[in-house]
Amino acid sequence: MDIKLASQAVLTDMIQWRRDLHQIPELGNELPQTVAYVCHVLEELGIDYDSSYVEGNGIVALIDGQGPKSETSQRVLAMRADMDGLPIQEATGLVFSSLNQNMHACGHDGHTAILLGAAKILQANRHLFSGTIKLIFQPGEEYPGGARPMIEEGALDNPRVTRIVGIHEGQLDPNAPSGTIAYKAGALMASMDRFLIEIVGKGWHGAYPEQAHDPIVAAGQLITALQTIKSRNIKASQAHVISITRVEGGYNQNIIPDCVELEGTVRTFDDELRRFIHQKIDQIAQGISQAMGVTCRVTYDYKYPAVLNDAQVVEESVAALSRQFGPDRLFACQEALMGGEDFAFYLKEVPGAYFFLTNPGMIEGAFHGHHHPKFDVDESYFALGAATFVSLALDYLA
Ligand code: NI
């Protein structure tokens, strides 16, 4: 089979599927219309699936190879797409713009379409490989997380997945040229945690602060003190971010409020560092509580771990893609991103790799970034995306 030709041949289908999905974006772990659409396409392709995951919002489909029995027969390659959109009002002006209040502003419509395109090719060429391909269509990547419930419900079992790959489209590495597959062994994307600190003091008249336990002054101390975790407690060479992104409290000019809330995000590439930062936030909050006569309640949510690509899978994949497309289509990312991605959970279970398909789309002459109301992608590169999945599958299973 000529993978490039086969991928070009399903391009029209993929664009149609993407545009249909683009018009009906849904949020989180509630994707009834999206799941119904994907199931319908899988039925048309004659691919068996189970759509009972995450209460009917996640799909696992299987394509069994019919090639001769060999040492690869026991292998199970999972290929994953996320299907959820964002609560953004689309402003692209595209003819196939969203018909509701949400938007596929991160390209997950394209991920789903590209994986369906690859599935169509692989389903028609089962004689070319042995082993099993498992298609994972998950909800909730943006929030609250769909990978974890998929795994807990057995998406990686029966048959047990031995390798997993996934692709994100758009322009994630700012240096990657259009029409490339970007890769990186090891850390690719950061962990993503959220913290909330409720500072509870005692409110009073603004003219008599001596009677109050002022949570606003305590919040000021806390905001400054939390910066010292990065600057004083952690090696400069260990990449991480601690950002306070919301401060809220108070009423007007003559009332000291009872309570102030701080919320923020922590990004790292290391689980131990996540626990250390959590501990330090707790410690500093308790110290300031004592010193300032307030109570700080810290909530630390461990959301997504870091995306850590398996070095061997990356090496084998890059070799296979390079043979298929030539080295010019590949781009080595020089540094990891501080953004997060719940594909990380699969990589904690099985070796695998996540790649970036670079295909920014122009609206009014410019590319607007991910999660922007004018985000768009270049659909012509869907063929490269599908060809990537097919190449990786045939390299591993044939
Ligand atoms: Ni995304």
Describe what you observe in this structure.
With 398 residues, the protein is α/β, with parallel strands linked by helices. It is built from 11 helices and 16 strands. It has helices spanning 3-9, 11-22, 32-45, 53-56, 108-124, 147-152, 215-233, 271-292, 311-325, 344-349, 382-397, and strands spanning 48-52, 58-64, 76-82, 132-138, 163-170, 180-183, 186-189, 192-200, 204-205, 241-249, 255-256, 259-267, 295-304, 307-309, 330-332, 352-358. The strands form 4 sheets. The chain has an 8-stranded mixed sheet with strand order 1-2-4-3-5-16-6-15. Strand 3, helix 5 and strand 4 (132-138) form a beta-alpha-beta unit. Helix 3 packs parallel to helix 5 and helix 7 (215-233) runs antiparallel to helix 8 (271-292). It is elongated and about 80 Å long. The two termini are 12 Å apart. The structure holds nickel (II) ion. Residues 106, 108, 141, 168 line the site of nickel (II) ion.
